[in-house]
């Protein structure tokens, strides 16, 4: 009875999804305008670059087509996916490749159900479809959420590295301000000192701000919104408030850099404490296993007598 109910529920859900796919709901005006703006922005970026991004060039064939269709599907329904876009921006990946991976991995897990059924039949375990279907469904769910977990972990590590670079960047800006430079010149000079992907992102944002006629703090704030880094947004707000007072902003930047270093040091100390506790637990398990190894022969001898 339970199997029949589950099968009926699966069939009903499949029919519902098929009906939604064949007769999709008409998007509203806001969703249509959002999709139009996103498509125009993407076309302008491709026209300015002269070619597709390197990430999209590596995504070929069916995966690229599926990714574009999924992105268009999300845009027509007005789904922003802000957190995912921020994680993809800081890891320098494309939304098309990410959505295609999320779709193709579960689909591949579901397509191997006949193979698993044939394998079970070859081993003499029966030709029932129920167990292989549940196994493949479990793997499909895991494969659907696996790209999100991987992306989130990588984005968190890169944000931590970016915060470390921002602390050093603030020290460099403070030293340039102490040397008599103005705020825009100090920001640009400090961004030209270091190397690495984080400093390149800061340098590109400040260079584009100079070309487009925006202020450097507006560019830093937009970069903070794009990468979801609160320190850049706070820095942009502070620069916008005290950009005319060189001495005041120099003190503020030095204090921000010191607070960021202190917070980073406390986070490192916390991680070191967690690793020390995990090592202690592992040592306790080893000691318990050694005691069981010593006591097992004596216990067996007592029980046998």
From TrEMBL:
<feature type="transmembrane region" description="Helical">
    <location>
        <begin position="103"/>
        <end position="125"/>
    </location>
</feature>
<protein>
    <submittedName>
        <fullName>Type II secretion system protein</fullName>
    </submittedName>
</protein>
<feature type="transmembrane region" description="Helical">
    <location>
        <begin position="6"/>
        <end position="23"/>
    </location>
</feature>
<keyword id="KW-1003">Cell membrane</keyword>
<keyword id="KW-0812">Transmembrane</keyword>
<feature type="transmembrane region" description="Helical">
    <location>
        <begin position="131"/>
        <end position="149"/>
    </location>
</feature>
<dbReference type="Pfam" id="PF00482">
    <property type="entry name" value="T2SSF"/>
</dbReference>
<dbReference type="InterPro" id="IPR018076">
    <property type="entry name" value="T2SS_GspF_dom"/>
</dbReference>
<keyword id="KW-1133">Transmembrane helix</keyword>
<feature type="domain" description="Type II secretion system protein GspF">
    <location>
        <begin position="169"/>
        <end position="294"/>
    </location>
</feature>
<feature type="transmembrane region" description="Helical">
    <location>
        <begin position="280"/>
        <end position="300"/>
    </location>
</feature>
<dbReference type="GO" id="GO:0005886">
    <property type="term" value="C:plasma membrane"/>
</dbReference>
<keyword id="KW-0472">Membrane</keyword>
């Amino acid at each position: 009875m339970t199997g029949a109910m589950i099968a009926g529920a699966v069939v009903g859900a499949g029919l519902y999804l098929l009906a939604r796919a064949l007769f999709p709901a008409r998007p509203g005006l806001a969703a249509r305008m959002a999709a139009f703006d996103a498509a125009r922005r993407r076309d302008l970026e491709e026209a300015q670059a002269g070619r597709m991004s390197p990430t999209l060039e590596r995504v070929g064939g069916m995966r690229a087509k599926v990714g574009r269709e999924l992105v268009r599907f999300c845009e027509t329904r007005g789904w922003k996916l802000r957190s995912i876009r921020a994680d993809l921006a800081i890891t320098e990946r494309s939304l098309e490749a990410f959505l295609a991976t999320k779709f193709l991995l579960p689909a591949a897990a579901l397509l191997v159900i006949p193979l698993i059924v044939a394998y079970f039949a070859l081993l003499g375990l029966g030709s029932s479809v129920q167990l292989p279907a549940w196994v493949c469904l479990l793997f499909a769910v895991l494969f659907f959420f696996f790209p999100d977990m991987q992306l989130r972990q990588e984005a968190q590590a890169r944000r931590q590295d970016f915060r470390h670079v921002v602390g050093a960047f603030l020290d460099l800006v403070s030293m340039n301000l102490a040397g008599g430079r103005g705020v825009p010149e100090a920001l640009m000079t400090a961004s030209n000192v270091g190397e690495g992907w984080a400093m390149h992102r800061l340098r590109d944002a400040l260079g584009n701000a100079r070309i487009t006629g925006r202020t450097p703090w507006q560019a830093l704030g937009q970069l903070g919104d794009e990468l979801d880094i609160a320190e850049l947004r706070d820095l942009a707000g502070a620069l916008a408030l005290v950009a005319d007072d060189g001495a005041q902003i120099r003190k503020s930047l030095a204090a921000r850099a010191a607070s960021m270093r202190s917070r980073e040091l406390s986070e490192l100390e916390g991680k070191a404490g967690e690793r020390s506790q995990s090592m202690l637990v592992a040592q306790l398990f080893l000691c318990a296993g050694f005691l069981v190894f010593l006591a097992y022969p004596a216990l067996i001898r007592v029980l046998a007598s």
